[in-house]
Structure prediction request, 349 residues.
Amino acid sequence: MGIANSVLEAVRTEMGLHPGTYPCKVGVRIGEMAAIDQDALRFCFEAIIHDTDLESLELGIEVCPRRHRCLVCGREFIVRDYDSRCPQCASLETTCIGGDELELAYLEVEEYGASTAAAKSPQ
Amino acid sequence: MERVPLQQKVLSENDRIAAELRARFQKHGILCLNLISSPGSGKTSLLERTLETLPRQDRVAVLTGDIQTENDANRLKRFHFPVKQITTGGTCHLDARMIERHLADWDLDDLDLLLIENVGNLVCPSSYDLGEAAKIVVLSVTEGEDKPLKYPSIFFKSDLLVLNKIDLLPYVPFDIEAAAENARKVHPGMEIVKVSCLTGNGLHEWMMWLEQRRMAHKSLAQQTVS
Prediction:
């Protein structure tokens, strides 16, 4: 719930920079090691926007896999099934370079009245 | 439709306060440790045994988090170190602002070690940086040995795994080697100590780990000053 609130707060802050528009979709990047359950986040997000001016705001979730870099040969690879051994040189000396993301990625905004205008004159 | 890129962490406000706390801890030479586990794994018991063992003149303080009640603070206060309860009133984790608020009337110059007992939960606390130098995860043998695989984030982010309640090993089907192996699958090279807060078995190893951390932190702080 705290995460959902933080996402919504960020949306409200960002919207201050885009007068005359409304937000359609907010995208977040979540690492598979970030301890965030997608369904729970979606549920909380929908619960807190319900009956507010942001009720139609969509939540886009991109899941980022755990990625390691080999300290011996430099190969970067996705870790599957907790096997962090380098697929190129079999070294166990690898370091994590991704997979614990909890980031805002993007916000899609639309000008008020733009969707009807676009429907009339498709570009 | 316009897509605006957002380059910020979801918890950027928490991270900002945590960074301030970390800087304050560093300035005052305080080692801050964040203890995390499921409810009932023995965080409070581990703190009780720790406070009981530490010399009375040590400059140690404890912040202990729960959703409700002052029970844990009351358990820990009898060791005569400063202890403060944080009741979150429903929130399932501590955040950096709660730590900041509860530190307000302590003089940080009087402290060397700050132990934070998080709310019992293996999930959300792992997302909230509290400005700590290290996270410690406690797992008890009455839970499953596959906990590290089911909740990888906290095992991945913690420096130390304390396997607690080893006195119960004869009575429960818990494979302690498999638990250690699972933890190291998620976090290669993870340090592990096996303890019983009831019998005191293994606590010496835990206290050694703590002492080493305190020494390392002290020498690092002195280098930074000089």
Q: What stands out?
A: The longest strand of chain A covers residues 21-31. The domain at 2-65+98-111 of chain A is CATH 3.30.2320.50 (hypothetical protein PF0899 fold). The mean pLDDT of chain A is 89.
